[in-house]
Amino acid sequence: MEKKSRQALHRGLKALISVPVDTQLQEDVVPEKTSRPALDQIPVSEITANPYQPREDFDTESLDELKDSIQKHGVLEPVILRKSKGHFEIVSGERRLRAVKELGLTTIPAVIREKVSDREMQLFSLIENQLRTDLNDLEIALGYNELINHFAYTHDKIAEDMGKSRPFVSNTLRLLKLPDDIKEALRQKNISSGHARALLALTDDEKRTEIFKKIISQNLSVRQVEKIIQNKKDETTPQHNKPDDKSFDLEELESRLSKTLNTKVIIRQGGTRGKILIQFLDISDLNRIVSLIGKQ
Questions:
Q1: Residue 161 belongs to what H/E stretch?
Q2: Which of 102, 118, 135 is the last residue of a domain?
Q3: Sequence-separated (6 or more) residues with CB below 8 Å from residue 214
Q4: Is the domain of 183 the same as that of 217?
Q5: What angle do CA 47, 38, 49 make, to 5 degrees?
Q6: Residue 60: inside a domain
Q7: The whole model's pTM is what?
Q8: Domain co-membership, 125 together with 71
Q9: Is 149 contained in some domain?
Q10: Tens digit of pLDDT for each residue in 183-236?
Q11: Which residues partner with 268 through β-bridges?
Q12: DSSP designation for 73
């Protein structure tokens, strides 16, 4: 299902911008000889970054590999630009632009798109980065939040446009509710998104921070964190009186009711309140018990 949604996203983005999106590395293949938009060699000094780029960190190692590829083969895929107030902004291909700049090249092949809205810029950046699979979950959450705040997107609309399920979108956005130190650790990849999502099960930030520090100091796995959190929940959940804790009077009353109704009866008491649980086998047995109770 995930593969299918990625393919659908890829096709949708290609249809909009007419060229492949940024890839982890340039493919060492000759571009297909099909009709494409005319390419321009644009001075890199006239190009600025996508203001809606959700990625804050670009992996140094993969960027170095991309630079090696460009040195050997040149820029095989053009970047996509839009005109904006006398300069150009990156729609797709920011890694290639960064690599070209670091290599000291002065121009880069580009396709110019005349009409690309801010909303489309935001979507293109999110889709492109998700297709590459290494966009941090916190960065995805920030991108989704921008769509909500700037373009009045709903969770359902984000899910539809991004090819994700609504629960995934909602759970990803919940990461923004974590304390700042935990969000920063997630952004720096000191903890995984699994750790972060497990911490969301707690509502108290002090408890979240307490367990977060244990994750870092003890190198806890996600499963270990989930177990710790479950134990903490159990500690705060009111416990019903166990049979062994019952008074003699309650046990005697249970026994009498069970004999009278000819079925198992359990009495649970908490403070001055409680409840009686009466078991029945089927509807006929339930009617029998009700009839007996009515006669008492």
A1: helix 155-162
A2: 135
A3: 220, 228
A4: yes
A5: 15
A6: yes
A7: 0.49
A8: yes
A9: no
A10: 999 988 899 989 999 999 888 899 999 999 999 999 999 999 998 988 877 665
A11: 275
A12: H
